Amino acid sequence: MLSAQRFDENPCRPRHFKPPPCAPVVTDGEAHARLELCRQRLVVTAALFAVVFLVVALRLVDVVALSGANAESHVVRIRPVTPPPPDRADILDRNGQLLATTLESPSLYADPRQIIDAEEATRALLTVFPRLDRNDLLAKLTSGKSFVWIKRHLSPTQQYEVNRLGIPGLNFEHEERRIYPFGDLAAHVVGYSSIDNVGLAGVERGLNAVLKRGRQPVQLSIDARVQFVLREELARVVHDFTAKGAAGIVMDARTGEVVAMVSLPDFDPNHPGMVDPATPPGEAREQIFNKITLGDYELGSVFKIFNTAMALDSGVATMTSQYDASKPIHIGRFTITDYHGKHRWLSVPELFMYSSNIASARMAVAAGAARQKAFLARLGLLKPASFQIEEVSKPHFPSVWREVNVMTIAFGHGIAVSPLQCVTAVAAIVNGGMLRPPTLLKLSPDQVPAGERVVSEKTSTQMRKLMRLVVEYGTAKKAEAPGYVVGGKTGTAEKNAGGHYLDKKLLSSFIGAFPMNDPRYVMLTLVDEPHGTKESYGYATAGWTVAPATSRIIQRIAPLLGVAPQDENSPAVKDALAIASLQGKRIESY
Amino acid sequence: MNRLGIAFWLVLAAGTGAAMFGVKYTVQNLDDELARVRKQTVAEQLELRVLNAEWTYLTQPERLAELNRQFLSLAPITIKQLQHTIAELPMRPPPPEEPVVAAAPAPPQPLPAASGELAATPVSLRSDEPAAPAMARAATGPAVPRAAPAPAARASRALDALFAQIAGDR
Asked: Does B69 touch chain A (CB under 8 A)?
């Protein structure tokens, strides 16, 4: 056919020439079959190609014109842009303030063989790092090695300055460093971590696993503002009473969240190993020591809260029960006396308000050793606290619970617990009787544990009234913060050293709650070895040292914590805290 | 026809090719830009971390307290400043009741149209008030200033009580 056409259209063909008509090629049977087979194969191949091209075309139309039905899914598959997660998650306070973070902190090294003018480079580097030794640096830069460290862990500003110098041969090695922007503010809470990013103390150690794997920051229950107020006021107490140290904790009575926790002296977690050369040896240990969780103290009269609650809750005593406090108790080699002696029979509110050791001991004996031990165990005072901080002390208590132990434990001697355990137990007693474990993690309302009932609602209400009485008329009048209906109990214990009590070495503590008609926060403050001053008339007892500090702290933190002041004389508050047996009676001051 | 067809297909093929390359290069540029933006975002996020740490460092409570001592002398909130909530604020004194107006001695006088218009303005502002007494008050003319001191005195008494409470003389 092709040849026929060519002849046909050839303009130079002779006019007379007519190509012979194409005669159909008649093939014989075998050839015909072969041709037919080839044709069929061609058709099939063409059809396949056509189908494939059709699919491609349809898909093109789909993608371009109809923008693809499932194009969105490809967009979703694009991962979000995030910086490479730091080695360790951040730690935030309850308001989102940064307590610990990990920053890129490049380290500067030099390749001395590339340094053109070592003298000039040294001079320039000293402008950025004035504390580097000039001769040392010059020796390093002229050493002819290929790698020398100049300085580890630069701040971002220093890195910028070095870059600006523009010296060839200086390079940065990427490293990360843990930063505690608030310094020593929450040192004992946050703790610190090693240069290899392993937590060594505080939350850094307790939540090491979470921090290491977590991309999400860990939010603590600590409120940095409250923490600051607590720390400042405790530092003032230490200064005013030339004390060895002090500690304080503020806990949400309803949830068990620790809002602030301070132990003085403290340290700067940015340089945990470095001690100020001015501090005497031994001080460093003291600084690292967390008095709140690791300290175990005989807290003294503060324990009368537990003793009285135990007696009231078990029905051994009622608010009108009377106990003989007319003369000291002699038992074994001990003599139990009263600091604020009344030398008469005292009712339960009176023994609590005047902090009578004698009457408390008699009340405890009436309840018995088994009941006392079981009650303290129920409050979690006989086993180490479970907490996000691992450094917790093991409480000390007698292995054999004899009558003399029953008596001394009634007023907080012969048993040593950590302030954390104590404040947790008091929170349970005033919040309506539900014990919730202490926590350093911020809890949302639905995360608050239901708690475990340790005393009845009725006992809790009675204890609130008694604690309010102590501040209204008793040993802690100076803890009153107008409008916040403070209640609490003071404790002044002599420190126990090697089995005997040191008369002049006191541990004064105050545990308080506010507002007492419906406690929101419980706080414990203690001061270690305070010395009386002229202003305190030589007293170093809790009523003169930590009680006034508590008042100042509450007045400053209550507005921050959203506790509305109330009128103490309003009928609602008065009714909630009135003690029926004392109504109409003149209450003697202690 | 045949040639036209060939030309058409050629143009179409060339056009498609050109468009494809165009799209390809656009995508490549977008890809480059995306990578650049991603890199920049990461750098800026890292910078944010630094700035956040720096901001926290600069807002250490201790430092703020010191700055406050130097420049502002702000004191902690005292209980006196917290004694009242918004709900406890006294309401605006109620509008004077009719007897006050009725007691005004001056008899109603016919007013010029202009002053009548002026007097009518408060009516539109206080739509909750019946229009008639307002008109009546306006209509009393010179008597209005004498009737006014009553609510004003009541308001200042309420304020006095509030101030007294705030000052703590309760």
From this structure: no
